Amino acid sequence: MIDLTQMGQQAQAAAQVLAQLDTATKNQALLAMAAELTAHTEQILDANARDLAAASDQPAKFTDRLRLTPARISDMANGLKSVAALPDPTARIDGGFTNAAGLSIIQKRVPLGVVGMIYEARPNVTVDAAGLTLKSGNAVMLRGGKEALQSNLALTQVLQTALTKVGLPAQAVQLVADPSRALANEMMHLTAYLDVLIPRGGAGLIQAVVNTATVPVIETGAGNCHIYVDQTADLEMAKAIVVNAKVQRPSVCNAAEKLLIHQAVAADYLPALAAALQAHGVALRGDEAARAIVPNMAAVTAADWDTEYNDLIMAVKVIADEDEAIAHINRHNTKHSESIITNDYASSERFLNQVDAACVYVNASTRFTDGEQFGFGAEIGISTQKLHARGPMGLAALTTTKYQIRGNGQVRE
Amino acid sequence: MIDLTQMGQQAQAAAQVLAQLDTATKNQALLAMAAELTAHTEQILDANARDLAAASDQPAKFTDRLRLTPARISDMANGLKSVAALPDPTARIDGGFTNAAGLSIIQKRVPLGVVGMIYEARPNVTVDAAGLTLKSGNAVMLRGGKEALQSNLALTQVLQTALTKVGLPAQAVQLVADPSRALANEMMHLTAYLDVLIPRGGAGLIQAVVNTATVPVIETGAGNCHIYVDQTADLEMAKAIVVNAKVQRPSVCNAAEKLLIHQAVAADYLPALAAALQAHGVALRGDEAARAIVPNMAAVTAADWDTEYNDLIMAVKVIADEDEAIAHINRHNTKHSESIITNDYASSERFLNQVDAACVYVNASTRFTDGEQFGFGAEIGISTQKLHARGPMGLAALTTTKYQIRGNGQVRE
Predict the structure, then answer these.
(1) B152 φ, ψ (degrees, to nearest 5)
(2) What CATH number does residue B127 fall under?
(3) CB–CB of A402 and B99 under 8 A?
(4) Where are the alpha helices (DSSP H) in B260-387?
(5) Nearest to A258 by CA among A334, A165, A356, A160
(6) Does residue A412 form part of some domain?
(7) Residue B94: its chain A contacts at CB < 8 A?
(8) Would you say residue B375 lies in a domain?
(9) How far apart are CA A204 and CA A185, in angstroms?
């Protein structure tokens, strides 16, 4: 029987310890976690094999994400070592000032406290989240997909052993070991203990958490991304970027789902763009104007414009001008990543300023929206909301600030 | 019949215009709003008189907040002029870097979009919120307390006239003119149009919004603030600070509600502290140890430790040591403002680092937690949550960031 209130209390107590640790101690814990993972590879693979056996009726795409191998466990351990090598986000002071009353006011970075994660059957998220929250001084409560329960139990046990070995509270990393809906629901309302809830997974999971939780949520990952090929675009560059953004890894949130093309170049460019995409197995769905130019596309439906395919599918629309492109994007996008291919300076500036998204690109693939690619070293998710953090979230997104105010007897007049 | 979806669409369209304005145009609008308020003082007072007449059965405290006077309207106009004089938070670029692929990545401050405000029957909030959201480039949807409806209608009409006069969309400032619970509830779920919801008012209103809203909420204002008098405290300083924090304005969230005093000085200090507070009409409620020293206190109950009085009441607890003080505060506080009075360096540092609150003070009154006192020039509220903004929120809290990324054909390997 899982008692979430008790888990929350333990997490909060652990968080108070973690918040006061120096960077060296946290790094030592991360390295111990990495060593312990490697040392228990067999035990983790055994647990994972039980999960895989129970999930044998699931599609290959699903079991591929669930499957652990010695190489993947080694990757997880290396990930923890990389996090140990990153700067400590709570070592930072954002700024400070002396106010009119002579108070010295310092704004210091501090951990959030207790982070809740709700995610799908991907055991690597368990280790990633534990490493990032620990480095930023937070305790974490993990609720992974039910199909990964045995793997997650084995992983958290190993991580807790490492924490104990370096003298830290094991409850800094806890697994909600009953992956039922009822308990997930209770977790979404654990406002007394959770400072933030980060859902990771498909649109359905994210929306369920956003609509249900009273704990503050950071919404992540929905990506209906567009590439707009302007009339001044270089065709070869456009082709390389559109193909990369669509096919390099179609299942992820920063893959492009929509191609908008200016009417002045549609007849010249679209046949080459479509052929390049189709050569990579992309199924195209065009509006009337696009199909008049490239007849071997399916007809697009209204619902397509709001759909994130996460697959080798792309919808194509011929656009009258940049204003129409920007309006279309702002109406249908998920505020993730949008790109314009252009050689016109004014067009590039309009697009950068008027498109409402976490990341707006000129002449580059949307696939770069990623903590690793941005140079953050690690990523807890990609925020598509506007509060707290926007775009790829590194360690800093797992912190907040505190004003520390030093006086010498000031009272308010 | 109020159509919130239509209002949301209009707000979003207005927000897209506001986001592209230069600072001078926004300032011109703020000055026009100030001028229009002054010019229509009579009309606003007439509307306010109708609200006051309908609220004649309400307590004086309530009608005092509802009441407008020529001086108060002039204050509101001056407030708008002050906001015009503040720096534009969206003019800032937070930073930038070139990533490994050679992309130039700039993190720019941008408006949130559409801000929703739910507040009580205080017409000044209508004008404050309109000014701050406009300056930060946001549209606002205002839902004030039903008892202020006529005042709010008159005020928003005047503000909209000013917007129209300077060529800006009137829908940048909209009032939800049906202050029913059903419509407030619908507003809390207007995720397609509202980027954030900021409740302002008593604990009941704030909690109702936090528990109901699916729109991201910034929680504000609950303040169960403590002052801990350490054994090394200067008694005269402690007396001045405790009295100031408790009595200077007891109804507000940064007033102190609890006095913790170290056992080593309780017998020496408490009689003088209690007498000073009682001389200002403060009703004291003590624990057993406190009442053994100062018998003329009522007995405290367990519920007191979690209660924000907003009144001339203060609960007193004798504390064994600083660890107990910090643990008590972290268990019962609302993460708003906490202060230690001490002359011991190590104690001050422990308190600053271990107390979990937006603002932690040494040797100063908690009453300084305020945007004006911090030098922000204006305040949209005081955040007691940890995401997005913590502590007094000035104009910057009404912005988010956007990554603008300039490339020259980069694709991801």
Answers:
(1) -65, -35
(2) 3.40.605.10
(3) no
(4) 263-279, 288-293, 322-332, 345-354, 371-374
(5) A334
(6) no
(7) none
(8) no
(9) 15
pLDDT one-digit tens code per residue, A41-75: 999 999 999 999 999 999 998 999 999 999 999 99
DSSP string, B239-253: HHHHHHHHHSSTTST
Q: Say yes or no: B9 contacts chain A, CB-CB below 8 A.
A: no
Q: What CATH number is associated with residue A368? A: 3.40.309.10
Are A132 and A247 members of one domain?
no
Select from B360, B368, B407 the Cβ nearest to the Cβ of A402: B360
Q: Are residues A295 and A189 located together in one domain of the fold?
A: no
Instruction: Please indicate, yes or no, if residue A353 is contained in any of the structural domains.
Output: yes
- Residue A318: which of A258, A363, A364 has the closest Cα? A258
A231 and A126 both lie in a single domain: no
List B residues 363-382 in contact with A (Cβ-Cβ < 8 A).
Answer: 363-365, 367-369, 373-375
Flag whether residue B169 sits within 8 Å of chain A, measured between CB atoms.
no
Beta strands in B157-207 (DSSP E): 173-175, 196-200
Q: Are residues B245 and B190 in the same domain?
A: no
How far, in Å, CA of A293 to CA of A408, rounded? 76
Place A139 in a pLDDT band, splitting at 50, 70 and 90.
very high
Q: State whether B99 and A368 contact (CB < 8 Å).
A: yes
A94 SS3 class: strand
Query: Are residues A202 and A91 located together in one domain of the fold?
Result: yes
Q: Which domain holds residue B92?
A: 4-219+385-406
How far is CA B136 from each of CA A385, B92, B173, B212, rounded to the nearest angstrom?
18, 11, 13, 27
Residues A196 and A242 in one domain: no
Domain count along chain B: 2
Cβ contact B244:A409 at 8 Å: no
For residue B300, give the nearest of B332, B264, B339, B258 by alpha carbon: B258
Is there a contact between A406 and B100 if contact means CB atoms under 8 Å apart?
A: no
Judge: B390–A410 Cβ closer than 8 Å, yes or no: no
Q: What is the pLDDT of residues A153-193, one digit of tens each?
A: 999 999 999 999 999 999 999 999 998 999 999 999 999 99
Could you report the predicted ipTM of this complex, rounded to two decimals?
0.94
- Which letter does DSSP use for residue B171 in this model? G
Same domain, A45 and A182: yes
Q: Could you report the per-residue pLDDT of A378-387, keeping only the tens digit for each?
A: 889 999 999 9
| Mean per-residue pLDDT, B237-251 | 97
Q: Both A337 and A392 in a single domain?
A: no
Tell me how far apart the alpha carbons of residues B281 and B285 are, in angstroms, rounded to a whole number: 13
B343 has a chain A CB within 8 A of its CB: no
Residue A380 covered by a domain: no
Strand ranges for A131-224 from DSSP E: 139-143, 173-175, 196-200
Q: What percent of chain A has pLDDT above 70? A: 100
